[in-house]
Amino acid sequence: MTLEFSRDFDPAYGRLVEIAPGIRRMTVANPSAFTFAGTNTYVVGEGRVAVIDPGPADPGHLHALRAALSGETITRILVTHTHRDHSPNAAALAAETGAASYGAGPHRPAPGAHPVGGSGRLDAAGDTAFVPTRPVGDGEIIEGEGFRLQAVATPGHADNHLAFALLGTDILFSGDHVMGWATTVVAPPDGSMRDYMASLDVLLARPESRYLPGHGGAVGNAHSHLRGLKAHRRMRERAILDRLAKGDETVPEIVAAIYRDVDPRLHGAAGLSTLAHLQDLVARGLVACGAAPDLAARYALAPG
Ligand SMILES: [Zn+2]
């Protein structure tokens, strides 16, 4: 199975672009190795609208968004997850508009998360300030004027990650869980590989076929992409088990061997992704670790 990524995307910074009937997108000018061309803010509806992921603390983006929506009213602010490229603008936007904010709760580590150890923690990832005025659970429906959005709990990239299905259409806002330009980062302590894989299955069981992600362009044929993502992670898992069988014992040794083709700026994330796999393998009894399974620990194949 080949997993295909596309980096073909025009961010059109500062402009609100219609991408489907009743759906517009404005991309924040915060491009980076982690955010690709920048964070996508989506506007759902017309007249009285919902905003999904207002973005990082960036007054310029908010100003451009509100100018593009002049004559319309923002009534709801939805947050896919509390990473700093998605949620911090929510507070200012709520204060300016009086709109309610919706999300799966404040930032939190994955259940059973182990300390990462060392200096491996991805800096500046979590937005610990965001608190939704309307906490949303899995399956809950957010009713707007002319649209209904259903929250789909999709932990893995972040424990409080939600996707939003636009009911009555084939569209799902997939946040950072599923994107078309790259695989997502699954990094402890926010992320959990076990939850991420289960959340891919959650989306496979749903009907939506076209995803609008937090970064980059739409993902068409989404179920095929989901199957490719699952196969990709299983391949990484096999590669890690293979390195352990060959005698590697540490995260840096494994990363050096299996992430040769990856942008060196992402090696810190690769280490955490490898750690996410190792913690999952330890939990499943396939890998042994004498101490807490963190970045500094030594790992081996479990006997038997
Ligand atoms: Zn993001």
UniProtKB/TrEMBL annotation:
Start and end residues of each Metallo-beta-lactamase domain: 38-215
Pfam families: Lactamase_B, WHD_BLACT
UniProt xrefs under InterPro entries: LACTB2_WH, Metallo-B-lactamas, RibonucZ/Hydroxyglut_hydro, Sec-metab_biosynth-thioest, WH-like_DNA-bd_sf
SUPFAM superfamilies found in the cross-reference section: Metallo-hydrolase/oxidoreductase
SMART domains the record matches: Lactamase_B
Protein name per its UniProtKB record: MBL fold metallo-hydrolase
